[in-house]
Amino acid sequence: MAKLISTKISQQPNDKPAMRLKILFNLYNLLEGPDSRFFVYMQALNLALNGKVIDHIVPSFKKIDSFLKEWNIGVKDQRNLFLTIANVLKENKSSGKDSFKFLTKYLATFSGEDSYVIGEAKEEAVRAVIEFVKAPDTFWCDLLDMPAVGQLEKDAKYALVYQLLKIFLTQRLDAYLEFQAANSTLMKSYGLVHEDCITKMRLMSLVDLGSNESGQIPYALIKDALRVNLLSSACLPHLLHDLGCSLMYFSLQINDDEVELWIVKAITAKLIDCKMDQMNQVVIVSRCTERIFGQHQWHSLRLKLATWRGNVASLISTIQANKVVEEGSQAMQGMAIR
């Protein structure tokens, strides 16, 4: 009965959608069975999307984890749920980051599936890559480890999209510039703005420097990483034919004074914690965000935890030894007084 009612209510999403959505919420709260509750919730999602009353249902997304425990639904239903939520949030311009999060959840459900099933997620995998590249405040993700995304690497149509993702997660600005010079049409077809990509890649190049150097990054190294050498640029063959490209690449050069500006930008974006030693022209890094978190990062984390554990054990032993010495000294003083 609940399914019949909710289906009927959702059939005309443009006719008083807010009221229809409220009816569905009331119906959901009256139900006790997890299956019927999940069905009604999905109807409410589609109604909110088609009726353009997204703001009314977005607050419920904070409870999705508890809903999943209550509904106890299968993998296919989870995929449908995550993808629908991602589509709902995509319509809300202020929820791009949350949309990407649920799209990533959707792609993660394809782990362990055969190639035929994984192929169903190909378009969404491309969408996730493009959304990550476009996002100005997202600097790490697990997309490279997902089979749904990995299938793009050898795909005739989308191999370059996978290559672009790999550049943003594992390489620096110079690699991006070479890619863009050879694939500018592809970049434009996905609505990627070159200047925005340069800004993001400069910040990610700083992250890469912080991850690979021994706690200190010379200003000169940062300057080299964030600029382009025209003579070695892959764009050079096109310079004689494309004056706009030439002007654009001249603008990529940065001065010594701009090095600290980019460091401040990285700190503001919470990508690194560091101090700038202006006297010695070095950046002293105390923490750096990882762009990817694979086996190497887990191994590094294990070594750090083992070191911290040893330091804490040593500190405890020192405190206990001092306590024993102090108690012995107090006992001797007591005997002397007697």
From TrEMBL:
Listed GO CC annotations: eukaryotic translation initiation factor 3 complex
Pfam families registered for this protein in UniProt: eIF3m_C_helix, PCI
Source lineage: Eukaryota, Viridiplantae, Streptophyta, Embryophyta, Tracheophyta
Ranges for domain PCI: 98-290
GO biological process, one term: cytoplasmic translational initiation
Signal sequence residues: none
Species for this entry: Gossypium harknessii
Similarity comment: Belongs to the CSN7/EIF3M family. CSN7 subfamily.
UniProt name for this protein: PCI domain-containing protein
